[in-house]
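Journal club prep, notes for RB
We'll compare a predicted complex against what the paper describes. Inputs for the pantoate case:
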Amino acid sequence: MLVIEKVEKMAAVSRKLRGGGKTIGFVPTMGYLHEGHLSLVGLSKAQADVTVVSIFVNPTQFGPNEDLGRYPRDAEGDLKKCKDSGVDVVFFPDAAGMYPEGYCTYVDVGRVSEGLCGASRPGHFRGVATVVAKLFNIVKPDRAFFGQKDFQQTVVIRRMVRDLNMDVEVVIGPTMREPDGLAMSSRNVYLAPAERAAATRLYAALSAAKGLYSSGERDAGRLKARVQEVLAEEPLIRPEYVEAVDNDMRTAETAGGDTVIAVAARVGSTRLIDNLPLLNG
Ligand code: PAF
């Protein structure tokens, strides 16, 4: 497994691989890898000749009062997981390499970045789109793999790729969950034991709405109210939003097969997100 820190070296390796006819699968991450990331590595290995994982805690997607400084990091553990999973190349740039002195170009994806997490984390998706666009230019993947867990992020990236004619296929892998339903996330490490127990309510609430949908309820307001009811049973949870949207981030009044129920909540001081497509979730 090759570990590359320099942008120029990564770009040169990718150029050579593509020149030699190899397809590149790419899994961008911020590290602290878990089974969710590794499932994307598995998809990439099945769909591309060479798998590249990037590990970069991207400062531009964190707001001034967010957790950039304490975002969990475990370089050694991540490299071992990558090696054990058969990753071919780990791209591990530093902030100065990605955003050199004088850096001033950003990618702003419009409407689909504005609601939900975009409303509560101003500038977040601008940072995500910018770094993903840069990583695509450096790694030059044929296919890039993202998790359904970050649903709005997948919509923003697909839109950026489409609007900017980027020559990469975006593949979305399913949300990986702990046995009790909690969506895997690097931020779960912040949860104290009581908060960890409370956090299972997020999936329970989404599942309750999905159950209601399966029994025939189509009114999105009532489905969202069911989510709020289940969350309200747990005092450690403070919901930030509960929304019903389609794959283009349009609010659904009437739920259908393409509706996704998305939630963000504070569990203690930790902000968690989760979502469930009403069909095939
Ligand atoms: O989902 C993440 O881990 C990040 O938002 C990403 C896509 C790696 C960009 O920094």
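Talking point for the session: Residues 155 and 248 are 7 Å apart (CA to CA).
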